[in-house]
Amino acid sequence: MRTKRNKAWTLLGLAVVLAIVGVVGLFLLARQPEIAAIAKPDPASFDQALVDRGRVLANYGDCTACHTREDGEPFAGNLPLPTPFGTIYTTNITPDVDTGIGGWSKEAFRRALKEGVDRKGNHLYPAFPYDHFTKVKVEDVDAIYAYLMAGVQPVKEAPHKNELPFPFNIRQTLYVWKALFLDKSPFKPDPTRDAQWNEGAYLVEGLGHCGACHTPRNLMGAETSPAYGGGLAEGWVAPPLNKDAYSQMPWTQQELVVYLMDGWHANHGMAAGPMTPVVNALQNQNEIDVFAIASYVETLRTGAPKIDATAARAAAVKREWGNPEAPAVPAEFAAGAKVFEQRCAQCHRNNGGSVPLALQSSIHAPDPGSVVHAIWNGIRPPTGALGRSMPALGPQLSEAEMTALVKFLRARYTDKKAWSGVDSAVKDVRKGK
Ligand code: HEC
Ligand code: HEC
Ligand code: HEC
Question: What is the mean pLDDT of the chain?
């Protein structure tokens, strides 16, 4: 009896010692050296052509979108990013010495983008998409550095503390995450493809970090296969860009370019939600580059079933509200249909100006997230489609009305099985989740 108990204590002791050794070991392994602060470089010391190139590249990386809070100064940070693990605030990347990156050397900046480590040696959370920036050429990273140092006004704004529970607040654990998931290999061009395709692949895989939203993530928050198989971003569905796309219409390269630059296409609807800042950045870019992006994105869809565009559009128009050939509303969806008629049909109707709802990928997605968010928050159109907005109607509806409406939309505008989880999705969005 006694020896048994002793043995148990010994085992427990051993476990505690091992745990301590493990934690100490992790902290030692995870340690990264501080890179000494430098005196803020003189903006005039940077080559203007490099600064200009950096501005274009920073735009591809959506650095402004993430590093600027609502009504905040450009690049001064503090945009809250909700993640499944808690809220992370972006940092100030203006060249302010105290609160931004004014004291960062080029080497410190390179390490942040390519290894996810800050100047002091702390591991950074992959909410900062450095898992894509590892693919960016060093000379391009240096151009972005030149732009931030010489083309951006310094702003004093201290970053908000992240709201992450234990153990996610321990930055050393990111060492393990990186060991498991961070691929630091450089971008490898495909010699069997042309220069345009390779340029597109470089932008999409690297700075454009399209997979950060369009690829599913595992329980540890790392991108997993299938690449571009669809993901979630701030509660919105980022549809698959591969053969499993939810698009009801085929995409030509030209259509993709229009969608990516203007944020709207008559066959595909709006680039709403978290896609809006992406297209707002692309709108200012060189069309040649966006054609390159489209040429790469097109090939991601290899193997997708062929769609007959004329038949698909005709079928979608037939379902539009007010179309004489539209199907009758079954009794179980009557409540939702009533809300639709009162609140939505003025824009979403037969012969109306908006894209038929049955052609919107969000309604065909297996998750109601985008539809629920569009109703609750409305749609603030991208700069290339300013005339097309949708008011935030959700707050004027009761929870029951909104739930019935969403269920009606799915039944009316798709022939897919009903969504599960509409009730909880509506509850969550109303609670601001
Ligand atoms: C999807 C949002 C997002 C995008 C896009 C993004 N960042 Fe960040 N970035 C973050 C977050 C979040 C952090 C803070 C991570 C942390 O606290 O661990 C961060 C941190 C950084 C840091 C470390 C700064 C510090 O003080 O520790 C640098 C440098 C940086 N980003 C530069 C850039 C550049 C340059 C781009 C564009 C090429 C960019 N970021 C694009 C979200 C983003
Ligand atoms: C911050 C997250 C995010 C990033 C980064 C992002 N997207 Fe998106 N994307 C979305 C969301 C969300 C939608 C759905 C928009 C909607 O419902 O209106 C979308 C929609 C799309 C669509 C329309 C798909 C369809 O089936 O209707 C295309 C094409 C697309 N994105 C391409 C890209 C490309 C190319 C990039 C990189 C240059 C990119 N996206 C980067 C979130 C993102
Ligand atoms: C003032 C006009 C207007 C009203 C009212 C309106 N919408 Fe919209 N809605 C739009 C526009 C514009 C778009 C963008 C696509 C397009 O041009 O067709 C859109 C897009 C959508 C989308 C696609 C979102 C995506 O993922 O891109 C859904 C779903 C939607 N509306 C549902 C509704 C519902 C449900 C209602 C009623 C509660 C409603 N809309 C009311 C104008 C409106």
Answer: 95
Q: Which amino acid is at 428?
A: D
Tell whether the torsion through CA atoms of 408, 399, 373 and 88 is positive or negative: negative
Dmax of the chain from CA atoms?
Answer: 86
Are 279 and 210 spatial neighbours (Cβ–Cβ below 8 Å)?
Answer: no
pLDDT tens by residue, 196-254: 999 999 999 999 999 999 999 999 999 999 999 999 999 999 999 999 999 999 999 99
Give the Cα separation of 71 and 92 in Å (integer): 14
Phi/psi at 4 (5° precision)? -60, -45
Ligand 1 centroid – CA 90 distance (Å): 6
Q: Which of 182, 101, 90 is nearest to 135 (CA)?
A: 182
One-letter identity of residue 69:
R
Residues with a CB atom less than 6 Å from ligand 1: 58, 61-63, 66-67, 81, 88, 90-91, 93, 101, 109, 112, 118, 124-125, 127-129, 144, 207
pLDDT of residue 429: 96
Distance of CA 377 from the midpoint of ligand 2 (Å):
18
**What pLDDT does residue 245 have?**
96
What pLDDT does 5 receive? 66
| pLDDT(360) > 80 | yes
Whole-number Å distance, alpha carbon 262 to ligand 2 midpoint, is 13
CA 339/CA 107 separation, integer angstroms: 57
Site of tokens 């070991």: 25
